[in-house]
Structures are given as C-alpha cells and as structure tokens.
Write a structure and sequence with these properties.
alpha+beta; elongated
C-alpha cells in the first residue's frame, strides 16, 4: 500500500513539474535582485568610507636632517582637518628667511613644530584645489661657531593661510600635494641674543612644499 501511495506522489510531482524548475519568473527576479544588492551595497559602503584618513610626508625635511609628517581626516567631500609635526636643520639660505644677520658660522634648527590645519576644497572630486589655514608653534635653536657651547632657544607662533592642489596618482590611493603659504610668526621677543651676537626674528615667512601622501 505504501509503495502505491509513494508511486502516486512521484507521478503527481512529475505531472506538476519540479517546484524549483517552475519557480515564478517574478520570484526568480526578486531573488536575483537580492543577490545583486547583497554584493553591491557593501562595496558602495566601503567606497563611501574610502579615503577618509590620509597620511603625508615632506621629503625635503628628511634632506635637512629632520622630518615632517601629518595626518588628516576628511570630514565631508569639501572639508578636511589635520595635524602636523616637523623638525629640521635649516641651511643658511632658509635660515635667512627666519632670522636676520645669519653668517656662515650660524646654525638655525627647528627643533620641533606642531600645527593643526583645515582645508576647504573647491570640488567634491578626489583631486582638486583647496585653500586652508594652519596654526601652531615652532621651537627654534640658534648656535654659532664663534661662540662654542652656547645656544639660544626661542618660540614663535604660526598663523598661515595657504593654498594648494591635491592630485591622486592614476586613480590610486597615493597622491601629491603641492602647496604654498605665508606664515605670520608672533613671538614674545623679536630680538634674540646669543652671547654678544644679536638676531632679529622676522614676522613673515613665505613657505611652500610638495607632500607625498596616501589615503585609507
């Protein structure tokens, strides 16, 4: 009896057709859409989160026996905030931009510099022009071969409007960022004395750089 019932069920199944082979077209379409969405939505979310965090270095400062780097965060498509740290031993040509009366025997070292900055981009595209403002402090040290063993340290502020261009290299996450600005450096004492020598700290410092960066 059981065999007869079983045969009847098989016969009915064959006549009606396999359930999966006869799945309604609209149900199949919905299933395919769900698969596509499951694959696309995570990718879209990842793209939205991509390039939020960036790190940069200025190779020039390594040449000057120092270092320079910063980290930045993209708040939205047009605004970026960040912080930077630098140190360098300035050649005389650059030292003359910071203080007066620089001689061949004079050495000016930027022992440390700490700044924060904000950039406003003119486009929502990855690459584009920007303007910004940077603020912080610079800690300097002056030494002179004419006065062995003596040094003079001083600190200036940094208030610098700047502008530049961020260029992603061949749609990769690496980018170049050339920029230029003019820094105003307030200090408590414009005249810095090292023994019998005297140096005047200049209020304005033109500056520019080419950064190499990577975005996550």
């Amino acid at each position: 009896m059981k065999k007869v019932i079983s045969k009847q069920r098989v016969s009915v199944a064959i006549k009606r057709g396999n359930l999966f082979s006869k799945t309604p077209t609209n149900l199949k379409s919905k299933f395919r859409i769900l698969i596509v969405l499951a694959a696309v939505l995570p990718s879209t979310n990842l793209l939205a989160q991509k390039r939020k965090l960036s790190v940069e270095v200025d190779p020039t400062f390594f040449v000057f026996s120092g270092y320079a780097g910063n980290v930045s965060y993209k708040v939205n498509e047009k605004w970026t905030v960040g912080a930077a740290i630098v140190s360098a031993k300035f050649p005389n040509l650059l030292a003359k931009l910071v203080i007066s009366d620089v001689q061949e025997s004079t050495t000016l070292k930027l022992e440390s510099g700490y700044t924060v900055f904000v950039h406003r981009f003119f486009t929502e595209k990855p690459s584009g022009w920007f303007v910004g403002l940077q603020a912080g402090v610079s800690n300097y040290k002056i030494t002179d071969d004419r006065l062995p063993g003596q040094e003079k340290k001083f600190t200036t502020g940094i208030i610098m409007p700047r502008a530049g261009y961020k260029y992603y290299i061949k749609n990769s996450d690496f980018y170049l960022l050339p920029w230029a600005g003019i820094s105003y450096g307030p200090t408590s004492n414009k005249t810095q004395k090292l023994g019998t020598l005297s140096y005047e700290v200049k209020s304005f410092l033109p500056f520019g750089a080419l950064h190499l960066g990577y975005s996550f």
